Amino acid sequence: MKRKLTLLLTCLLASISLTIAQTSKKVTGVIFSEEDNQPVIGASVVIKGTSIGTTTDLDGKFVISNVPSSSRT
């Protein structure tokens, strides 16, 4: 009985942690110049209404991790 209870609690905690881990989003993209269609280096990208952001790399690419699931992208 004790072993079954331990197994049940372990499964419950594992499922809760997986649910919590999936409450954030990851936003990726590439920014190109409208004038010459070249990648924009060092552009600031910020999630509207937050202080979460990053800058683009040498290829104009960006990745923002841990975006709250309530944020609109």
UniProtKB/TrEMBL annotation:
Signal peptide interval: 1-21
Pfam families with a match to the protein in the record: CarbopepD_reg_2
Coiled coil: none
Organism: Bacteroides xylanisolvens
Name listed for the protein in its UniProt record: SusC/RagA family TonB-linked outer membrane protein
Gene3D superfamilies on file: Carboxypeptidase-like, regulatory domain
Lineage of the organism: Bacteria, Pseudomonadati, Bacteroidota, Bacteroidia, Bacteroidales
InterPro entries xrefs: CarboxyPept-like_regulatory (IPR008969)
UniProt KW keywords: Signal
Classification via SUPFAM superfamilies: Carboxypeptidase regulatory domain-like
